Amino acid sequence: MENMWLVASEWLGLALVGGLLAGWTGISISLMEIAVGVIGGNFLGLHTTPWVDFLAGVGSILLTFLAGAEVDPEVLRTKFKESVSIGVIAFLLPFAGALLYAYYALHWTLQAAEIAGIALSTTSVAVVYAVMVETGLNESEIGKIILAACFVNDLGTVVALGILFANFNGWMLLFAIVMAIVLAFIPRFTRWYVARYGNRVSQLEVKYFFFLLFFLGGLASMANSEAVLPAYLIGLAVAGFFLQEKNLALRMRTMAFAFLTPFYFLKAGLFVSLPAVVASAGIIIIALLVKIITKFIGVWPATRFFKFEPREGMYTTLLMSTGLTFGTISSLFGLNHGYISQAQYTILVTVVILSAVVPTMIAQAFFRPDLVPAPKQEKRRHVLIPQKEEGN
């Protein structure tokens, strides 16, 4: 019987190494944790346990929830046509292109090809958001449109994953009804609940969100869908609330990235076989080109239609070609449910990782818009609010 504490120290030790490497190199922490997971799986004998699988699952759900909660509803309203059009096109064409390539050229099964289409249709909100903040473009009009389009793109991938692999039975009907009711009432109820029970030592607001994520994720799983679907929708529903409750968002983000998401990203890298990467190098390169080219075919003309400057259009197209979080989530979903093999998983995750790096480097080096960010508002002072005692 394995020593649970030593296994936990091994996983968190690798997460610590990944974090240090990310700090030294400036590379995304998610990418570094996946890379360390690849090393752990290929050279250190790292393997999963049931409790590791659970923590990795919680990490993916919470990460998806937080991604949805990052949406700025005001941007979606003011730049609705641009963000929705670019986001939808950026999902549809790569999805169709990757699916057809996997099904007809690689002779994968239809379900495996559908997983490939979903995994390679994504845009990395994590990568794009980090780039926007780092360059200050998140305060510009072009930056806000790109971020909103990313959210629309990834919503399409999450919905596709939920629909294509769901069982349309009584459980699906129950899930749809409960989900509709929750989405209708959660924005207003959440504000009332947190105002009434928030800021206590027991962190009742955090428990509230975890209950919703677990309960709706459980219903989604009973319908053979994926728990990330309700997590993303709940995040979108409470995005306006989280924009005002920065402290709560920070606490949940800290919890996720400090302890939960490392298990998910390390596990994502764990199943990448380096011999399979070498053996499938040609397939990986072509799949990467399929993703990037189909993104260009769809997004570049859309940017011209909305009168983006050529440099801005190319920058937008390259950033919309990135992928990471939802690409690995959908690939791992396919592997865990037996829709794809480990060799196919290796191909998809390798393409996803390359798509997070290559387009971003090209965009930043050659097409970064020469824009001046809007003046930032004076930062508010953060006053430490004493937590309520239990029972108050």
From TrEMBL:
Question: A Gene Ontology MF term for this entry?
Answer: antiporter activity
GO terms classed as biological process: proton transmembrane transport; sodium ion transport
Spell out the subcellular localization from the entry: Membrane
Mainly resides where? membrane
Every copy of the Cation/H+ exchanger transmembrane domain together lies at 14-363
Protein's membrane topology: Multi-pass membrane protein
What GO CC annotations are associated with the protein?
A: membrane
Alphabetical UniProt keywords = Antiport, Ion transport, Membrane, Sodium, Sodium transport, Transmembrane, Transmembrane helix, Transport
- Report the InterPro entries cross-referenced here: Cation/H_exchanger_TM, Na+/solute_symporter_sf
Provide the transmembrane region boundaries: 12-39, 51-71, 83-106, 112-133, 145-165, 171-194, 206-223, 256-277, 283-302, 314-333, 345-367
PANTHER family reported for this sequence: NAPA-TYPE SODIUM/HYDROGEN ANTIPORTER, SODIUM ION_PROTON EXCHANGER (EUROFUNG)
Instruction: Give the family per the record.
Output: Belongs to the monovalent cation:proton antiporter 2 (CPA2) transporter (TC 2.A.37) family.
Designated name of the protein: Glutathione-regulated potassium-efflux system protein KefB
- Its source organism is Neomoorella stamsii
